[in-house]
Amino acid sequence: MPLCPVLTTERLILRPFTANDIDAIFTLYSDEETNTFLPWFPIKTRQEAEDLFARRYAAPPPDGGYRYAVCLRTDDIPIGYVHLSESDSRDLGYGLRSDCWGRGIAAEAAAAVICQAQKDGIPFVTATHDVRNPASGRVMQKLGLRYCYSYVEQWQPKNIPVTFRLYQRNLDGCEKRMYTKYWEQSAIHYVE
């Protein structure tokens, strides 16, 4: 994948995070409600936000994927993120400040990234959500991803068992393809 080109939608700008976004990163990653169903613990200090930026956003992703700050066009301040991994799973992930939920922003941002991925020749994307977070599953469905299976994983660094639902969308017309690695790795897996 190429470096993340800036993407725009009707309401949003998707761009790489910059060092000027530390305060927004702190607000996003310290939001307890936002981070309930994400693997990491909420950060507590601005220094942790600086460390997170340096570790996660200061350089292009090591796997070549996309990492976008989701900003409203009105102020260009990050309110969330969308990531797409270049790893074999092509995992799509997103997070949004809880005060921005319920407005279709996550779906709008992720749709723009999926469109770019398709233009760049990415054959498919997957996404997973904790079964206790059905709102995230509705975003995946809105994006045209289809449910494939559920599996249990010991989620790190929180070290808790989580049942995930895996969704997938094939972008290259190969509708029979299904990413099965999580199914194969999990001792507990099933189709609901």
TrEMBL record:
**Can you give the residue ranges of the N-acetyltransferase domain?**
12-167
Q: Name one GO molecular function term.
A: acyltransferase activity, transferring groups other than amino-acyl groups
- What's the domain of life for this entry? Bacteria
Note one Pfam family from the annotation.
Acetyltransf_3
Q: Which InterPro entries match?
A: Acyl_CoA_acyltransferase, GNAT_dom, N-acetyltransferase
The name this protein carries in UniProt is: GNAT family N-acetyltransferase
